[in-house]
Amino acid sequence: VIATMRDLRKRDALEAAAGAALGRTLRIERLDVCSDASVAECMATVPGGHVDVLGDNAGVGRVGPLESIPVQEMQRLFDTNVFGAARVIQAVLPGMKRRRRGHIVVISSVMGLQGIVFNDVYAASKFAVEGLCESLAVQLLQFNV
């Protein structure tokens, strides 16, 4: 198992929870889903690039009415929540399709199904994630992914 996080300085709690598995069946790597280079660097640490299960729970939130959120903040949120998921899926998908097996689990939010007041931008990003994953699920059936 490879657990990833953007900032390895925050890994103490994860290492403590890992216990004896750390270094034996679990290792921790740096991965910033907002960076193509970081995704590629992390994938290079995977033996043979062979990923059986991808669990993607990277995400950021933003509360506030649409008119109060600068476009640059919206782009940052979408870069993490939507394009980040797309980046890591793109990285593992060719191998999964070639092997004709694999699992991709993307953690979204109830706000990907129903918007909530003052969560306009966050809900929009989660709706996008839901659409991405629903479309992929249909396409990937033929590959047993």
Automatic annotation (TrEMBL):
GO terms for cellular component: cytosol. GO terms for molecular function: all-trans-retinol dehydrogenase (NAD+) activity. Gene3D superfamilies: NAD(P)-binding Rossmann-like Domain. The keyword Oxidoreductase applies. Pfam families: adh_short (PF00106). GO terms for biological process: retinol metabolic process. Keywords: Oxidoreductase. SUPFAM superfamilies: NAD(P)-binding Rossmann-fold domains. Belongs to the short-chain dehydrogenases/reductases (SDR) family. This is RDH8 dehydrogenase.
